[in-house]
Amino acid sequence: MTIRTATHLSIRNLDVWYGGQHALKDINADIPRHQITTIVGPSGCGKTTLLKSLNRLSELNTQVNVSGQVLLDGIDIYDPAVDVTEVRTRIGLLAQKPCPLPMSIYDNIAYGPRIHGQKNGKMDDVVRTHLQDVELWDEVKHRLKAPATGLSVGQQQRLCLARALAVRPEVLLCDESTSALDPISARAVERLLDRLKENYTVVMVTHDLAQARRLADYVLFIWLGEVVEQGPARHVFNQPREPRTRAYLAGEIG
Amino acid sequence: MMNRRQRRHLEERFFKGVMRLSLFLALGVLGLIIVTVTQKGIGSLSWSMLTKSSEGGFYLGKEGGILNAIVGSLYLAAGATALALVLGLPVVFYLHAYIGKSSLANAVRLAFDVLWGIPSIVYGAFGFILMLMIGMRASLLGGIITLALVELPILVRTMDEVMRMIPHELTESTYALGTTRLELAGILLRQTLPGLVTAVLLAFGRGIGDAAAVLFTAGYTDNMPDSLMRPVASLPLAIFFQLSTPFPEVQARAYASALVLTILILVISLLARLSLRALGRHVIR
User: Fold this and answer.
1) Is residue A1 part of a domain?
2) Structural domain range at position A68
3) Is the torsion defined by CA of A168, A170, A175, A176 positive or negative?
4) Is the whole-model pTM more than 0.90?
5) Residue A115 is nearest to which of B173, B183, B284, comparing CB atoms?
6) Same structural domain, B20 and B94
7) Does B223 touch chain A (CB under 8 A)?
8) Residue B92 sits in the same domain as residue B20
């Protein structure tokens, strides 16, 4: 039995070592439910490492060591009793570069539901709903069996978003998910994320401060592997308490 | 005095010329082999040579054909490739999915590189000794096992390189859907299938063309292959035996056999290329 609170993901004393390097130092944060949390900070400060520690993708790299807790509704995803595939089903990822699966547009969406036990009978509906969700349906409905690689980069990223949503996650991690896109596709993805937060908790890494200002409800500012400041976006962006946050927002570091 | 711009253009032209020359030499060798084999062998190539087994005195210039060697070679190479795949695929997947870039993985890669470099006559001798130990005679099965050992390093290392070309993002995105490692392997198989088929072709080509590995282990016979436990004829050995005779007409038959082998490989490669186009439709580049 899990209790639904305002906090969806809770990061407790998280330390991450990358090789010999202490990449993240004693991170503590509460990610609010059904809001967009942005992780901002200069390049190489550990933003992506933090993001990928939230659904244990970081452990794909054998050089990475993690200690501490990440609690998803109170359950530590690093608990050895927890099934990692379950964690990643509940916490999805939209990567930096769109990377469709090597199959058709239709199968890209259907793959996730299929491995999680969805029968083929209702698959057409599942595929249509999720493609409509990301406003891709009208563009691809006549070529669902075509290779996903035939889509433009912007379309591919929306397909990847639909694919991630089709496994019905609770949390969606976005790793600079609009940085590889043209401005129009980027804004389309932004719009979608803004709408999706009604039903999903979104955590996004971005180096684009303007984007963070547009989207963020909650902000984590990370610098050299530490959380310097966190809080509701309007506080962090308008009245930063820390001098380092002020310097970053003013463009003096980063 | 040349100015800088002229010198850079001259460099460009020079190196382009060197590259073209190398390409020409490589293709030229292939062309010359085909021309020589065709020229010397086409006269002896006959329908009965392709449709009849060797009948006693074929290697002395009498009647018969090399059908037994054609079929034998196909059996040997297909069997060996299948066996090498059965042995090799788990190695490749284990390398990729479980030990990745570790020093153990690199040691395994080094071991297979060494195996790749070992001459096939050594595999033949090794296989022969092994067969003596367990009391097995030269046979189709012995040839298949030995050829599989010859093919295994080619298959494993080529497939391994194909797997290493997989974009990191694909692995991550797939895992992020909550897949198990086995399900990930399924996705990666789709991504790499064209490359893997190419690896199988390389291995098959090596297997069907090898004479030394089957010399002691598969033996030779005038009969069609009829049992895994009996000796079997093969095209490379047919060429070898025919060329070793002092009779010009039999030597011409060797060239005709070589022509058959070359055409066989060409046809198989072309068919595979065609199927690759269909397989590669969804591959992420």
Assistant:
1) no
2) 7-101+173-249
3) positive
4) no
5) B183
6) no
7) no
8) no
Q: How many domains does chain B have?
A: 2
Q: Which domain, by its residues, includes B36?
A: 4-41
Distances (CA, A) of A237 to A229, A232, B175: 10, 9, 34
Per-residue pLDDT of chain A (254 residues; tens, 9 = 90+): 455 678 999 999 999 998 888 999 999 999 999 999 999 998 888 899 999 999 999 988 878 899 999 999 999 999 999 999 999 999 999 999 999 999 999 999 999 999 998 888 889 999 999 999 898 999 999 999 999 999 999 999 999 999 999 999 999 999 999 998 988 889 989 999 999 999 999 999 998 899 999 999 999 999 999 999 999 999 999 999 999 999 999 888 76
B278 contact A CB<8A: no
Instruction: Report the residue of chain B nearest A85, measured CA to CA.
Output: B178
Q: Which of A62, A86, A95 is opposite residue B102, by nearest beta carbon? A: A62
**Closest among B233, B254, B249 to B60, alpha carbons compared:** B249
B190: chain A residues, CB-CB within 8 Å = 101-103
List all residues of chain B from 81 to 100 with a beta carbon under 8 Å from chain A.
Answer: 100
Number of structural domains chain A divides into: 1
Claim to verify: residue B67 and residue B124 sit in the same structural domain: yes
B102 in A contact zone (CB under 8 Å): yes
Q: Does B177 touch chain A (CB under 8 A)?
A: yes
Contacts of A17 (CB under 8 A, 6+ apart): A23, A64, A65, A66
Kindly report the CA angle at A233 between A98 and A93, in degrees rounded to 5? 20
ipTM of the assembly? 0.91
Residues 6+ positions from A188 with CB-CB distance below 8 Å: A135, A154, A158
Tell me, yes or no, whether B133 and B243 share the same domain: yes
Are B177 and A60 an interchain contact pair (Cβ–Cβ within 8 Å)? no
Q: Which of A60, A90, A103 sits opposite B172 (nearest CB)?
A: A60
- B22 and B58 inside one domain: no
CATH number at residue B277: 1.10.3720.10
Q: Are residues B19 and B108 in the same domain?
A: no
Nearest to A167 by CA among A207, A200, A208: A200
From B172, which residue of chain A is nearest by alpha-carbon distance? A57
CB contact under 8 A, B180 and A85: yes
In a domain, A110, yes or no: no
Identify the helix (H) or strand (E) that includes residue B74. helix B67-94
- Is B277 in the A-facing interface, judged by CB distances under 8 Å? no
Q: What is the CATH number of the domain that holds A59?
A: 3.40.50.300
> Is-contact A166 A130, C-beta < 8 A?
yes
